[in-house]
Amino acid sequence: MGVDPGLTRCGVSIVDGALGRQVTAVAVDVIRTPPEMALPQRLLLVADAAEEWMDRHRPEAVAIERVFSQHNVRTAMATAQAGGVIALAAARREIPVAFHTPSQVKAAVTGNGSADKAQVTAMVTRILGLATAPKPADAADALALAICHCWRAPMLDRMAKAEAQAAAAQRKYLERVDKQRKAVLG
């Protein structure tokens, strides 16, 4: 499940990943909340809709765009809050959550970490073999997040396993050194 978080428009998508880089679009939509509504109620609407998506589609993972930096602090806070309630909904269902920066998503989908929205939309349309481009941009961004995660997750898993193996080997080495030191000191 890919999520482009936002309070006014929150893009959500489901894709199926296959061997290699093959991905298929399953569903995409935009959760909308009225700007005049109070923040807690808007967050509740986003959370309820995201939970309904998770319960209906049962994703193996949820990929959420990481709020990196924005010029408008208020917008950044709202985006982070929307992403937070979605991450919470996934955690309650024991669905792994991954956060990807906008540049990671753009680089994965277009090959250029500073691609514009039109380039991202064009590549999402091409990668998924869609007849028409997903609209609005929040929908295309949610699909791009899901695609990015399908392509990056195997590498991230391998890196995590390698780091865990290195940490275990280091612990074992330090235990051996400590044991030898104690034997010498006696």
UniProtKB/TrEMBL annotation:
UniProt catalytic activity: Endonucleolytic cleavage at a junction such as a reciprocal single-stranded crossover between two homologous DNA duplexes (Holliday junction)
Gene3D superfamilies reported for this sequence: Ribonuclease H-like superfamily/Ribonuclease H
Subcellular location: Cytoplasm
Record's cofactor remark: Binds 2 Mg(2+) ion per subunit.
Binding residues annotated for Mg(2+) 2, in chain numbering: 65
Chief location bin: cytoplasm
Residue positions of the active site: 4, 65, 138
Assembly and oligomerization: Homodimer which binds Holliday junction (HJ) DNA. The HJ becomes 2-fold symmetrical on binding to RuvC with unstacked arms; it has a different conformation from HJ DNA in complex with RuvA. In the full resolvosome a probable DNA-RuvA(4)-RuvB(12)-RuvC(2) complex forms which resolves the HJ.
PANTHER family, alphabetized: CROSSOVER JUNCTION ENDODEOXYRIBONUCLEASE RUVC
NCBIfam families for this protein: ruvC
Name of the molecule in the record: Crossover junction endodeoxyribonuclease RuvC
Gene: ruvC
